[in-house]
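lol ok so funny story. i was supposed to be doing the assay writeup but got distracted and ended up predicting the structure for this chain instead. priorities right. anyway since i did it might as well share w the group, maybe its usefull for someone
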Amino acid sequence: MGWAGIQNGELLALAVKEFDVMVTMDQGIEHQQNLAERRLVVILLQGKSNRLEDTIGFVEQIERLLRTPVSPGRLYRLASSE
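and the output, tada:
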């Protein structure tokens, strides 16, 4: 999307315009940004690393979460089982 290098509040502002859900591994996001003001569901992955082999296991958890009622402006944490 040409968003390389865009960070923090600017990234969230762009995401809100294009998406309903944002998945991140930024552990500080809830302390750095006021997510309640954003019309965006934020899913925080808490895994070993951001490498594909460490994050692919989250796909089922994300799908399961998104089949339940989720609320924009709220952060949802998913932890790896390892």
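Residues 8-18 form the longest helix (11 residues). The first strand starts at residue 21 and ends at 24.
back to the writeup now i swear
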